[in-house]
Amino acid sequence: MPGPGGGLGPRGFLTDEEKQNKPKVTGKLLKRILSYLKPYWFQFLLVFITILIAALVGLLPSILTGKIVDNALVGKDLALLIKLLLMAFGALAASQIIGVIESYINAWIAQKIIYDMKNQMYKHLQSMPQSFFTTEKQGDIVTRMNTDISGVSSVISGTLARIVSNTATVVTTLVALFTMSWKLAIVGIVVIPFLIIPTRSVGKTRFKLLKESQEKNDEMNQVINETLSVSGAMLVKLFNREEREYANFVRVNDDVTKISLKEQRSGKWFMVALGMFTQLAPLLIYFAGGLFIIRAWDPALTVGTITATVALVNRLYRPVEALLNVGVDFTRSLALFTRIFDYLDRENTIVSPENGQKPAVKNQPVVYDHVRFRYLEEKPLLEDVSFTVPGGKMYAIVGPSGSGKSTIVNLLPRLYDVNGGGISIAGVDVRDFDLDYLRQHIGVVTQETYLFNGTIRENLQYANENATQEDIENACRIANIHDFIAAQPEGYDSPVGNRGLKLSGGEKQRMSIARMILKDPDILILDEATSALDSISENAIQDALERVMAGRTSIVIAHRLSTILKADRILVVANGSIQEQGTHEELLALNGIYRELYETQFRKAIEYEKEKEEETREK
Predict the structure, then answer these.
(1) Could you give phi then psi for residue 308, rounded to 5 degrees?
(2) Which pLDDT belongs to residue 427?
(3) Buried b / exposed e across 89-110, counting CB within 10 Å, b at 16+?
(4) Rounded CA gap, 496 and 494, in Å?
(5) Which helix (H) or strand (E) holds 27?
(6) pLDDT digit string (tens) for 59-69?
(7) What is the C-alpha end-to-end distance of the chain, expressed in Å?
(8) Residue 370's pLDDT band (boundaries 50, 70, 90)?
(9) Phi, psi of 387, deg, nearest 5
(10) What phi and psi, each to the nearest 5 degrees, are found at residue 34?
(11) Residue among 359, 473, 325 at smallest CA distance from 4
């Protein structure tokens, strides 16, 4: 008789962290989980039916064993023996085939639910405000999308199926046992707790030791990583700490070895005794059955019934022990769904209003009216920002690092929403715009250019899927990158690599400008659009950008004086508001913040660029 399995590892027990974060079971939570299962109720019904049939068919080999003993062997009937053996084999084969069918349906249901949940999660995350992606760790987002939702498969095809299957096995087996002989059934059932309870006790002890062993191994790995890395090894040598670190390693290694031996020894003698007791269980059934037959206490009892009882009792141990772990499996399953629902319940604060407005925005003024904004409640960033960009004009925003320049322009396409005041285009608050329409008419070139892992053409057409080859080439010529692309072996079908790593910073930025040109927006936002370009490249596309901005309302953030000087008006941001505004000459005359920026940043940049130009000419 096989020994009881499971319960000797983490599957049978909750970790301290799992206990601490144990989700609260509510009717609302269970109803929400069941809502994902509801569309596939018919398939679930098929699974339950196949599990029940498998449990019933699984009884036949044990029951037929009794018939073989009583009728075929005792009766010396070879034909009946062969017939019963074939029936037992057929039952085994049928049970396996039914199991395969059940497994297939289960897997199909699980994958369909995962498909539905991933679509729902991706759609929800797409609509989340930009603040969500700046505060949440990217690894957490990927984990929720992939690991957590994929884990639902093990809940449906594993936990749920195991509960139903084990319950069906236990119920059908108990019915068969009591139907054959209630007296022997009681003897067999009484033995089960004496096998399972000690096993769980030893399993809990081993679980604790495994946890301690893992902690010690983590400590050893930390010592190895710190002292045998390039920098760590150099530090050890420079401070003559070889002997000290070696002694520390020997100590940790000794702890790891001792606890590993302790964990391996744990329960060994118990398992020997348990194995003997496991084999003792059928002997007790044989003893009780033999006593009933010899003393004639149960005339209907036969040797075959005793044999079948032993075989059926063997079917009970693993399912009963697995059902004892239902609480652990159930808690982990709920925790998984709770983590998923945590993301799905995050409120999307930036939504398109019902019947959002779609006014004409070309050459219309952009107005910031006493705008206030903060990323954190206790730390305001913008307190009172007010200015107006007339339609078709180009305004430049300058200011110290961290003053909120990028935040100001990010509020326009509603990547974030203002906390106070308002922003309007053509006299309409941007929060009243249809969100897709608003963003469709605003083009942004960010300081950090992002490219997808695809071809140059695919990245450019991301702005305009209907752009022709001629449109693409014209945009790239304006951005001064067509010649570079044409020189590539695969031209516009050349891969850019992950995040555009196959391109230089300047090439990526010019790609971003070309992409914006293909979008052909009415309002332009250039956030350090030429920061990654050398002076030659910048000059080459500066005229192009001016042509692109002509007739368009533009807001430019720049540290380069050459860009700022082309602006119709310069806005100086500091201390959460517009401190100064005017032309270059007007701002210099104020001897304020702009003058200080000019002296510390712009003049040095001009001198540096002149030196580079002179070096280039000399070469």
Answers:
(1) -65, -35
(2) 92
(3) eebeeebeebbeebeebbeebb
(4) 6
(5) helix 27-37
(6) 888 888 888 88
(7) 88
(8) very high
(9) -170, 165
(10) -65, -25
(11) 325
- pLDDT single digits (tens) 13-36: 555 555 555 667 778 888 888 888
Confidence at residue 6, expressed as pLDDT on a 0 to 100 scale: 36
Across-strand partners of 527? Answer: 557
User: 10 Å Cβ neighbour count for 260?
Assistant: 16
| CA nearest neighbour of 307 among 292, 323, 289, 325 | 289
In the numeric block, which tokens belong to residue 614? Answer: 């002179």
The structure tokens listed for 602 are 């712009």
Residue 180 confidence (pLDDT): 86
Q: Can you tell me the distance from the alpha carbon of 541 to that of 61, in angstroms, rounded to the nearest whole number? A: 83
DSSP string, 401-456: TTSSHHHHHHTTTTSS--SEEEEEETTEEGGGB-HHHHHHTEEEE-SS----SSBH
**Residue (of 537, 546, 489, 471) closest to 509 by Cα position:** 537
482 token code pair: 């067509």
Q: How far apart are CA 615 and CA 619, in angstroms?
A: 6
In this predicted structure, the answer to whether residue 425 has a pLDDT above a threshold of 90 is yes
From residue 584, give the alpha-carbon distance in Å to each of 397, 462, 571. Answer: 12, 37, 10
Contacts of 441 (CB under 8 A, 6+ apart): 361, 362, 521, 522, 523
How big is the chain, counted in residues? 619
Walk across the sheet containing 428-429 and list its strands. 428-429, 420-425, 366-376, 379-389, 577-582, 569-574, 394-398, 553-557, 523-527, 442-445
Q: What is the mean pLDDT of residues 423-444?
A: 93
Report helix, strand or coil for 77. coil
Average pLDDT along the chain:
81
CA-nearest of 397, 617, 436, 435 to 529 is: 397
| Calpha distance 316→309 (Å, rounded) | 11
Question: Is the pLDDT higher at 27 or at 601?
Answer: 27
Coil, helix or strand for 7? coil
Distance of CA 251 to the CA centre of its chain: 38
The whole-angstrom separation of Cα 481 and Cα 338 is: 49
Tokens of 585: 């000459």
Average pLDDT of span 602-613: 60
pLDDT in tens, 101-147: 888 888 888 888 888 888 988 888 888 888 788 777 777 788 888 87
Rounded to an integer, the average pLDDT of 394-403 is 87
Rounded CA separation 354/432 (Å): 9
* Element (DSSP H or E) covering residue 580: strand 577-582
Closest to 311 (Cα-Cα) out of 102, 161, 88, 162: 88
Give the tokens for residue 453: 């892992």
Contact yes or no for 68/306 (Cβ under 8 A): no
Instruction: Please provide residue 379's backbone torsions phi and psi, each rounded to the nearest 5 degrees.
Output: -135, 85
What pLDDT shows up at residue 200?
58
Cβ count near 253 (within 10 Å): 13
∠ Cα 525 527 528 (to 5°): 140
Number of Cα atoms under 13 Å in the Cβ half of residue 544: 20
Sign of CA dihedral 403, 408, 414, 419: positive
